[in-house]
Design a protein that fits this description.
The chain is of the alpha+beta class. It is built from three helices and seven strands, in the order H-E-E-E-H-H-E-E-E-E. It has one domain. A four-stranded antiparallel beta sheet has the order 1-2-3-7, with no helix packed on it. Strands 4-5-6 form a three-stranded antiparallel beta sheet.
């Protein structure tokens, strides 16, 4: 999916450092802030209870955003792709288009790195949504950039101790994690959130990065 921010006005090229910083600030102060403020409005009872619930095994339920998050396990430095919850696992966002008569990038043949057909989708999410499905729910997906930023703690740029996430989510690799968001103007790049410092960035979709599944929402 493409990553659209209502109200965001681009100021430069997508890969420009100042543009990335400006977009991070916009998300955290306008788009994300407005979403959370809207959720917490009304009676304010959300403020009187713990934000996170873990009464469903393997899942964190966020009362603030109504999102259901997968809990990770087994951070021991060794990936175990047979276990989709293993925190050491890393996945690609897309798959290589293969060699074409025009060259290896496939662009001349109308191919690109835009498709959501990397191992994050064909292995990780397929495992969660296949068979009996994880916790009986078959609609697990990658989070949007905005959604993943909601579990960064504390918010960018004040996180001083990695990983920047509540331990209730299980062990987390202090590294970039894929989101579902694609760069509108550079389809071969997708957005990621760093649990090293809570920042937002984007990378080539063929890179291997950790993922965390989510479902539900506002």
């Amino acid at each position: 999916m493409d990553f659209h921010l209502p109200g965001w006005v681009p100021r430069g090229e997508p890969n420009d450092a100042e543009e990335v910083v400006a977009m991070r600030t916009f998300i955290l102060t306008v788009a994300l802030g407005g979403m959370l403020a809207g959720t917490a409005g009304g009676t304010g009872s959300i403020c009187e209870r713990d934000r996170f619930r873990t009464d469903v095994p393997g899942i964190v339920i966020d009362r603030l955003t109504a999102l259901r998050w997968e809990i990770k396990t087994n951070l021991d430095g060794t990936a175990n792709l047979a276990d989709p919850h293993d925190a050491d696992n890393a996945y690609t966002w897309t798959s290589p288009p293969g060699e074409t008569p025009e060259g290896e990038d496939g662009t001349a043949a109308g191919l690109s790195y835009a498709a959501a057909d990397g191992t994050a989708f064909t292995s990780f999410l397929a495992s969660l949504n296949g068979g009996a499905c994880f916790q009986g729910q078959c609609d697990w997906r990658l989070p949007t950039p905005e959604e993943l930023l909601t579990i960064v703690t504390p918010a960018y740029p004040t996180c001083l101790s990695a990983p920047c996430i509540d331990s209730i989510f299980g062990p987390t690799v202090p590294f970039h994690h894929w989101t579902a968001g694609t760069i509108d103007t550079i389809k071969s790049f997708a957005w990621s959130v760093s649990f090293v410092d809570g920042s937002l960035d984007y990378f080539w979709k063929l890179e291997d990065y950790p993922v965390r599944a989510v479902r539900g929402g506002l």
